[in-house]
């Protein structure tokens, strides 16, 4: 089932999402719905708060980028209860990001290039890994959603000022996108 994507302004996007027990009711169906929703919106990552649930579940599909980044061929991963436990602060880079919850907004965000992450995968296997490159960026973007943060919180005050009217338009439902969404107020 394709779920509506919650747009900037929805309170659930500002909640700190909770870890879930691995026998969480209907978890498999929910993850299937997240995959379906991600594909329908042509995104590369989706966090549960973006479909209205304040729980720590994320899906990432980098296979869709594998024409340009062959190292991510077949990379589709489920993250249950992910936590970034360490940031390697020795190197950062700036890259343009977008978000299904912020249609039509793209801004450069500076992030560490290497992180240590703990999570449980879709087969319920635990992981504790150092991750770098583009995947580390996507993970930081998605896992921010689980802490009630969005990438526009990480841009400079000047850039934020410049996109103020675009953010206001999102709050008021004045935007177009090719997928089903849920807006806070009109
Ligand atoms: Zn996002």
Structural commentary:
The chain is of the alpha+beta class and 186 residues long. The chain is built from four helices and seven strands. The strands form two sheets. The chain has a five-stranded antiparallel beta sheet. The protein has a two-stranded parallel ribbon with strand order 1-7. The radius of gyration is 16 Å and the shape is globular. The model has no long low-confidence stretch (mean pLDDT 96). The site of zinc ion has 5 residues, from α2.
User: Which percent range fits the helix content?
Assistant: 10-25%
Our Rg estimate from Cα atoms comes to: 16 Å
Contiguous uncertain segments of 5+ residues: none
Profile the largest sheet. 5 strands, antiparallel
Give the helix/strand class. Answer: alpha+beta
Heteromolecules bound: zinc ion
How much of the polypeptide forms β-strand, as a percent range? 25-35%
Strand order of the largest sheet: 2-3-4-5-6
Give the CA-CA distance, first to last residue: 26 Å
Average pLDDT for all residues: 96
**How would you describe the shape?**
globular
Order of helices and strands: EHEEEEEHHHE
Q: Total strand count, please?
A: 7
Give the helix tally: 4
């Amino acid at each position: 089932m394709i779920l509506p994507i919650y747009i900037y302004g929805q309170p659930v996007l500002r909640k700190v999402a909770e870890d879930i027990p691995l026998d969480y009711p209907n978890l498999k169906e929910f993850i299937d719905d997240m995959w379906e929703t991600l594909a329908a919106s042509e995104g590369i990552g989706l966090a549960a708060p973006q479909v209205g649930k304040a729980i720590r579940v994320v899906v990432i599909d980098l296979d869709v980028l594998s024409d340009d980044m062959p190292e991510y061929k077949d990379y589709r991963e489920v993250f249950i209860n992910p936590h970034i436990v360490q940031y390697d602060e020795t190197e950062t880079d700036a890259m343009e990001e977008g978000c299904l919850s912020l249609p039509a907004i793209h801004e450069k965000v500076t992030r560490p290039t290497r992180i240590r992450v703990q999570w449980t995968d879709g087969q319920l296997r635990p992981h504790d890994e150092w991750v770098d490159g583009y995947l580390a960026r996507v993970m930081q973007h998605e896992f921010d959603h689980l802490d009630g943060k969005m990438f526009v919180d990480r841009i400079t005050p000047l850039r934020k000022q410049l996109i103020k009217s675009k953010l206001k338009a999102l709050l008021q439902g004045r935007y177009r996108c090719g997928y089903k969404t849920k807006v806070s107020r009109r």
